[in-house]
């Protein structure tokens, strides 16, 4: 075997390994997107859900993110203000062991809170960094 043919075989082997590694990354990403889609569908089956004067009306997946749409269109006095609601909801998501597992699998959440009375619109991304825990 010539030096050139050995080089070509080594190059082809290296390219083959790189393609295999990249395919593994793509399939992992595809699995995460599929898991996010399934999770959003599961959440939607139980909607609407009332939480502290707010109503979760929709869960949509966007890649590996699940967008949770939450509205408040009541005029009740004494209800939780929108920022306090976002803070409490974030704490609940970040301390839920089941949701922590989903985040460790690459699924992240986006809270979109809309207060129809005041026009308040808040968007908060939740991921392992925001929740102050490290992936396994």
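^ Assign residues to that structure.
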């Amino acid at each position: 075997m010539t030096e050139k043919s050995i080089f070509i075989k080594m190059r082809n082997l290296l390219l083959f390994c790189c393609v295999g590694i990249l395919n593994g990354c793509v399939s992992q990403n595809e699995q995460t997107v599929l898991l996010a889609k399934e999770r959003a569908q599961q959440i939607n089956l139980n909607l609407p859900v009332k939480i502290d004067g707010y109503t979760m009306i929709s869960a949509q997946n966007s890649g590996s993110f699940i967008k949770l749409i939450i509205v408040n269109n009541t005029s009740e006095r004494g209800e939780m203000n929108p920022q306090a609601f976002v803070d409490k909801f974030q704490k609940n998501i970040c301390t839920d062991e089941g949701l922590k597992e989903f985040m460790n699998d690459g699924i992240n959440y986006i809270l979109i809170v809309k207060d129809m009375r005041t026009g308040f619109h808040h968007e908060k991304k939740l991921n392992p960094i925001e929740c102050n825990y490290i992936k396994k």
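The mean pLDDT is 79.
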